[in-house]
Model the fold of this input.
Amino acid sequence: MNFTSTALLLLAFLFVVPAAADCDATVSSLDKLLLSRSNKCKEDSDCDGFYFRADPCASAIVLPKSVVTDEFKETVTKKQEAAKKACAKEWEEKTVCTPTPFRAVCVRGRCFDRKVDKPNPPTGNL
Done:
């Protein structure tokens, strides 16, 4: 390997790796926000699924409707846009996805996606 090849390889590494790190960091930031919300519920109708994740092919996140305020939606939108910008190169060849179905339920006082999550069903007197 000559000097030019080595220099080009180093430049590619310097620009590609930080971009991937930025993508991971912005997606992680959005996921942390989504998972930080209260997940408490009293009945199934308290819960709903929201396609808030940055990856358009990701499943919905099931949350109590009450925590999805206008302010929360604004924050999510900003974080989604940041992730899409940071991940544009990595996601440029992604195909269009059909939304993954969900079934929002309240089990033991917490919202779950019965299609994805497998909480132990309540037993006995709670």
Remarks:
- The chain is about 45% helix and 15% strand.
- Helices lie at 3-36, 70-86, 88-91.
